[in-house]
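About this split. The held-out portion is used to measure sequence recovery: a designer receives only the structure tokens and must propose an amino acid at every position. Recovery is the fraction of positions where the proposal matches the reference. Here is one held-out target exactly as it appears in the evaluation file.
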């Protein structure tokens, strides 16, 4: 009896696994050498050119899980709560939003948007993931695109209204829709 086991396709999976582990080591090396300085440089250039009030923050307490954040800071929301039986008002603070470049456990970079929120007025939403990139995929032009997405998102938040645009049918209307429209007139 032959006790040899054929691990054929399993060996392919093991090879892929080893490649991924090797990639993780290489990706992690690129964060301090290339990515973090490049992200900070592009974000700083944006802040200078735009004149926007923002701070570039580096969070590096945990090796290989670092982040670079474009933080728009906090401000008064303009909303204040009247305290019972006093003339005192409690101002509600607004977090103005952030664009986050977070190094993942495998060395890839997750790009997220943290929308504004008002403390004491609802709960902040989870950050929105824009994309996850391998280090060699993250280029200055993508950071510009991330900034566009970030400002689109926070502008929509600031300009929120719940009015739904009315939908007007375009083109052919089935008979029953036309009849409903005429009846409601």
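Reference sequence for scoring:
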């Amino acid at each position: 009896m032959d006790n040899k086991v054929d691990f054929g396709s399993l060996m392919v999976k093991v090879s892929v696994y080893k490649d991924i582990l090797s990639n993780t080591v290489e990706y992690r090396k690129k964060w301090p050498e290339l990515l973090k300085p490049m992200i900070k440089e592009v974000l700083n250039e944006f802040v200078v050119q735009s004149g926007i009030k923002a701070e570039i923050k580096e969070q590096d307490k945990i090796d290989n899980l670092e982040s670079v954040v474009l933080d728009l800071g906090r401000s008064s929301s303009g909303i204040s709560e009247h305290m019972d039986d006093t003339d005192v008002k409690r101002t509600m603070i607004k977090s103005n939003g952030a664009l986050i470049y977070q190094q993942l456990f495998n060395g890839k970079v997750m790009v997220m948007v943290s929308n504004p929120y008002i403390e004491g007025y609802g709960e902040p939403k989870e950050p929105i993931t824009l994309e996850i990139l391998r280090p060699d995929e993250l280029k200055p032009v993508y950071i510009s695109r991330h900034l566009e997405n970030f400002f689109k998102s926070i502008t929509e938040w600031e300009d929120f209204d719940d009015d739904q645009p009315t939908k007007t049918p375009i083109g052919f209307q089935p008979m029953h829709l036309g009849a409903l429209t005429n009846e409601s007139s």
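Annotator remark: The mean pLDDT is 87.
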